[in-house]
Design goal:
Helix content: 25-40%
Distance between the termini: 46 Å
Largest sheet: 7 strands, antiparallel
Number of strands: 25
Shape: elongated
Length: 599
């Protein structure tokens, strides 16, 4: 069987998803009356549809990055003034009845047929067309003769010679490029497609030959045939081609059946969605199934939007922390270089001592003098440079001054190095917290901590002075039923290490590196070696050393842990620790049960 690598997939809002959404729309929206239309974003339309006693909010988006359509429960605020396209929709289809919902072939074009009155009070059926096609996505209103009344995005001759989207023009469907409706493909036409695409891969052939088939669906077709989706058609045997058609039919039949909306996760990271069961992802990915296509799409895009907003909001803070860290690492390197220089200056005391011991044998005006080094067991000679305009005594005093200056500097350097190392460790702990964070409130905690640290030179706003509402640490359950808590940032670490533990609990932290504070709650039980090992893997994974092997992790009874007065967030001291060595892996972390704390 084909082996699939655990890689992130990129499944678009394809024709299969739209096919299942339209079936859902038909059940819920046909016969409904459009009571409200508004445009909260420049590329987004929302309609309130009344069907009997039910109300549905329909979202239609032509966003270049996230074009989509589904029934939503998340309501956005209306703009004070409706955009012109919204006004056109209100003029032609407000209070109209949805009489049909269809899909053009199996392409990503949603067609809402809406019955309403024209200026002569005659009943006419207009169509609202939603083209879900990446950067070319659009929402277009056409009349009963397919003439364009208006569109969200205008496309003139400068953008497209073949297809202009302008009021008054006839609506033309996007070019299909000889792609076929996958519901209408028989074995002869399938074999003809294979014949014409000998030098293309199985995946590319399926995507380019069939309307609405995404790369993920193409990989599923290959998987059910037991071949690699990257295999060339010319490399397939006659039997494999026959099996490929059979697996194609299997997938098409699965599409015809009831939708199975699901969101796909890789290592707890949401990567995509599907409306059929993708067998090739079952082993490596976690699949979360939903009761409706709209519910799945709303959850997916809400989480995706949150992830994008998180990335955007964290970028500036990450840049500031990275800049400060690089600055302090460079400072530490310079200080250590100064220490090396100071140690080299030990020779100045030797020069002074040798000149003093031989002061009567040296004359003023000499540039150098060769003296026996009586500190050397071999009693070897050494060349000592002299200033010609100085007496021997003055040369000796000059060397003693250089030595004393280096000695004093070395004392200060040790303090500066210790201070700079602490700063580096603290900045790395903030960056590690940023790396572990997934929620906006956790990001706010790290930002709040940074703004209240010595590194922030700007005045705090009234909002920044407010006390931060703490987010919750990660909560795991060991294989033996012990509760394990993992702090994801310094504020959470403080909570885990000062508020949660009891004397008999076990506390863990990766050795000599920034990382999460981990607590095993004993709850009257003896904490086993197996649970300590599992907690150690968590401590290593949620640390700067997560990608290393044989990571040292300290563990101790909670009673030996202390938080020094006025210490920075996340900074503790401890004694009586033992050290174990673990190699953290994603599989080991994923195997542990996560507890969702809703309180």
């Amino acid at each position: 069987m084909q082996r699939f690598e655990r890689s992130i997939i990129h499944m678009a809002y394809d024709g299969v998803t739209l096919y299942h959404l339209i079936r859902e729309f038909k059940d819920l929206l046909v016969g409904g009356r459009i009571r409200k239309i508004y445009q909260p974003e420049t590329d987004e339309i929302r309609m309130l549809v009344n069907v009997g006693n039910q109300k549905y909010h329909v979202l239609l988006s032509a966003n270049a990055s996230n074009p989509r359509a589904y029934i939503t429960e998340k309501i956005k605020e209306n703009p004070s003034a409706a955009p012109s396209f919204c006004m056109v929709l209100r003029k032609y289809i407000l209070n109209g009845t949805i009489v049909d919902i269809d899909q053009h072939e199996t392409d990503r074009i949603l067609e809402l047929s809406i019955s309403s009155k024209n200026e002569f009070n005659d009943t006419v059926v207009r169509k609202l067309l939603v083209e879900i096609m990446g950067r070319n996505s659009n929402i277009i209103l056409v009349d009963e003769s397919q003439r364009i009344l208006d569109s969200m995005k205008k496309v003139g001759t400068t953008s497209s010679r073949y297809r202009q989207i302008l009021p008054g023009r006839d609506y033309i469907y996007p070019p299909e490029n000889n792609r076929l409706n996958f519901f209408q493909v028989d074995e002869d036409s399938f074999n003809e497609i294979l014949l014409l695409n000998q030098e293309a891969t199985v995946e590319k052939t399926c995507v380019q030959a069939f309307l609405g088939i995404s790369p993920a669906i193409a990989r599923e077709i290959a998987f059910r045939n037991g071949i690699n989706s990257n295999s060339l058609i010319s490399e397939l045997s006659k039997k494999q081609k026959q099996y490929l058609y059979e697996s194609f039919n299997q997938v098409v039949n699965a599409i015809r059946e009831k939708a199975c909306p699901n969101i796909i996760y890789l290592n707890r990271k949401m990567v995509d969605f599907s409306t059929i069961s993708l067998h090739h992802l079952r082993e490596a990915h976690r699949i979360e199934v939903y009761s409706s296509v709209s519910e799945m799409l709303e959850d997916y895009y809400f989480k995706r939007d949150k992830a994008i907003r998180f990335k955007t909001r964290s970028a500036n803070l990450r840049h500031q922390l990275d800049t400060l860290l690089k600055k302090n690492v460079k400072k530490l390197k310079n200080l250590q270089s100064d220490v090396e220089t100071s140690h080299k200056n030990e020779k100045y005391k030797l020069y002074g001592d040798l000149i003093t011991a031989n002061i009567y044998a040296i004359e003023k005006g000499q540039e150098t003098v060769t003296l026996a080094n009586y500190y050397d067991p071999a009693y070897q000679t050494i060349d000592v440079p002299l200033k010609v305009n100085r007496t021997p005594a003055q040369n000796a005093q000059s060397y003693y001054k250089k030595y004393n200056k280096s000695k004093i500097a070395l004392q200060y350097l040790e303090g500066y190095i210790s201070e700079t190392k602490e700063k580096i460790y603290y900045l790395e702990s903030l960056l590690n917290g940023l790396e572990q964070s997934t929620e906006l409130n956790e990001l706010d905690e790290i930002r709040h901590e940074f703004l209240h640290s010595e590194f922030n030179k700007k005045a705090l706003s009234k909002e920044d002075r407010k006390k931060q509402v703490l987010s919750k640490p990660l909560h795991y359950l060991s294989s033996e039923g012990f509760h394990i808590f993992v702090g994801k940032n310094n504020y959470q670490n403080d909570y885990v290490s000062t508020k949660m533990g009891k004397d008999e609990d076990c506390w863990l932290h990766v050795k000599d590196a920034p990382g999460s504070h981990v607590l095993i709650v004993a709850n009257g039980r003896f904490i086993t070696e197996k649970t300590v090992l599992e907690a150690g893997v968590l401590a290593a994974w949620y640390s700067k050393s997560k990608h290393s092997s044989n990571v040292p992790v300290d563990y101790l009874e909670f009673k030996y842990l202390k938080k020094p007065s006025k210490a920075k967030p996340g900074m503790v001291i401890f004694t009586n620790q033992n050290t174990m060595y673990v190699t953290p892996t994603q599989d080991a972390v994923d195997a542990m049960e996560v507890v969702i704390d809703n309180d």
